Amino acid sequence: MRENIDKETGFLMPTASDFNVADLFDLKNETALITGAANGIGRVAAIVLGKAGAKIAITDINFEEAKILEKELLKAGVKAKAWHMDAKNEKNIIEVFDKVDKILGDTTILINNAGNAHRSAAEEMSTEDFENIIRLNLTGSFICARTAAQRMLKNKRGSIINIASIMGVTGGGPAPNSPYHASKGAIVNLTRSLANEWGPKGIRVNAIGPTYTKTRLVKSLNEDPEKLKFIIERTPLRRLAEVSEMAGGILFLASNASSMVTGHTLMIDGGWASN
Description:
By secondary structure, the protein is an alpha/beta fold. It has a single domain (about 25-270), classed as Rossmann fold (3-Layer(aba) Sandwich). Helix content is about 40%, strand content about 15%. The chain has nine helices and nine strands. The strands form two sheets. It has a seven-stranded parallel sheet with strand order 5-4-3-6-7-8-9, sandwiched between helices. Strands 1-2 form a two-stranded antiparallel sheet. A hairpin with a 6-residue loop joins β1 (about 5) and β2.
């Protein structure tokens, strides 16, 4: 893109004739690793980033479903490969990143999507159940971010996108879910912390904060009329999100369209957090 120099300020300004919007979202030189990529938001991330030109590392604990997505992406002309990865297992995480390096190249985009919930009353929840969610949603995300950053620091560039939640910025909901709320609140602040630490070294770290989205994670809530009514009435747009509605925010944060954005949690929530 050619630029003109503003005569009054000396600053560079784009020219309308040469400004190409598509260039902002072009990922053809990128390798994106997505955790929990076989379904839900991770699946959408793999598709949108792949269609924007990135090579896609599909990682998931369910390898059979990951392979199905690999075939789908390859058929669509996207360079992709699936790996089994347990996002709670540090050794497994590091091994997968090493394999991705050799086959697709160093990871330049990380989507920290793997996660789960445990909906039960806090006073009845075991410490083990609480810690299992923290281990996956928070500690696993940190290990993946650290492992990706070790590659990104060598190249002095990269984008990490954590999947937070409306529950990372609010405490209520239709069902008790304390470890999920705690982990997603921590993800929001981990995003800020890593953005400040790695920003000077060329790595951007952001998050998206989805509302209740039509994925397996909310299947039981969607099937409960009382809980579904609570969610819809609490949401200004009066509906659940379609999983495809996460694609735009993920692509924005992964691409040069957000080159001056870091430390931010982009709420894709139908207005929930503003209510």
